[in-house]
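A quick aside before the break. I want you to see a complete sequence-to-structure record at least once, exactly as it would be stored in a machine-readable document. Don't worry about memorizing anything.
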Amino acid sequence: MVLVLLPDSAPSPRVVFKFGGTTVGTPERFRTVIALLNEHFRALRQSFDEVDRSGFTPALRDAVLATGEQLSVPMVTLALRDAGVEAPHCDTARLVVTDDTFGEANVDRSTTAERVRDWYRALSPMAVPVVAGFIGATEAGRTTTLGFEGSDYSAALFARILEARCVTRYTDVDGLYTADPSVHEDAERLDRLSMEDAFAMTESGDLGMHPKTLRPLADARIPMQVRSIVEPEQAGTQILPNGVPTGAFWPSP
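That is the input. The structure line, written in tokens, reads:
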């Protein structure tokens, strides 16, 4: 493996990037990794230069926060391609159009839907595309973020636009609980929730999701399941619109 350490530099702490051996196993792949890093390092340096000139504004904060997501996409893409999967990726800022409410941007769903569909139609039928959640951009091209747990909202938007069968959300716990299981020993895992109950839990802050996440899914009657990346064989929690069967999920519980 390769570790790349960035020095301390306000407003960003030290960062460690870990690349597995297969991502740097040949000179071509090594050059790809270096090119990917250089591209994002240039963007970070530009952000830091602007911080020096004008202070740490909400717009600059979004530009810096988006970097982690933007770096994750090409890394996942490289891993998929190494496994023989056709895995194109796209800068989400070119697809998701928002207003300039930095830190909690509102998505222009009509324009975003048009861009996402045009991009997706141009892909091979066998492609497994990779995009970043959590981020978008204004019409002028300034990077924005969608707020706390905005990646869930991104997943729901893409599912709605592309008429997906379901959304599977992988996390580090095996589903949704009645309370935080790391704090409350008596917390119970929920096997199944109606979309209405999930809405109520989201509004009260008990679901740990972006408040906007469920609306696109409910509108299109798309179910969601929450499963563990640590124990992927566990069934997790299903969130079902009325009348949608449990067999709609993939992978199956």
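Two observations worth writing down. The two ends are 34 Å apart (CA to CA). The mean pLDDT is 78. We'll return to this after the break.
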